[in-house]
Amino acid sequence: MHNLKNILEIYRKENINTDEIMFIEMIDKYKSWQSMTDREKFQDKKQSYLIDTKFGGFSLEIEYETQIIFFLENLLCFFESINEQEFFREYLSLSQESKILFRIYYLLYSEKELLLYTRSSRGIKIHIPLETFENLINQIKFTSLYKKYSLEKLFEDYSLLLELFSKKPFEYDEK
Question: Is residue 173's pLDDT more than 80?
């Protein structure tokens, strides 16, 4: 497939149907988003958030977006602080504490993927319930790893994120 940017340029020069352009732009944006790193996606979301807050005032949606940004920033730092290949290389030889961290790490990785799946936070339809983490948190709560990786703060942020999501921030009252 040719570069979609070049195709769009041809469409615009030739004044081809705007509906066709719209669909090609949509796919171009999707492909561009999918090719970004997590850090680039985060920066893009953060930039959109800053624009929204500058012009959007305060709303439940903005509060939810704010929490997504806080949580993602801490989450990405958490991932960057662990050398996954080295730390989790041999699962069977890990200590019990490290095995719990391993499980938390990959659940949080799954949550990160949900948060960064689309450019818009309106595309987020589900989060991993806090209950899924609770047993794991309780098993690691009083350990050095829990403290070292600031998991208490991370899960406080996550809990607030889930609370805001439960209030359905993207549903509007059309009365």
Answer: no
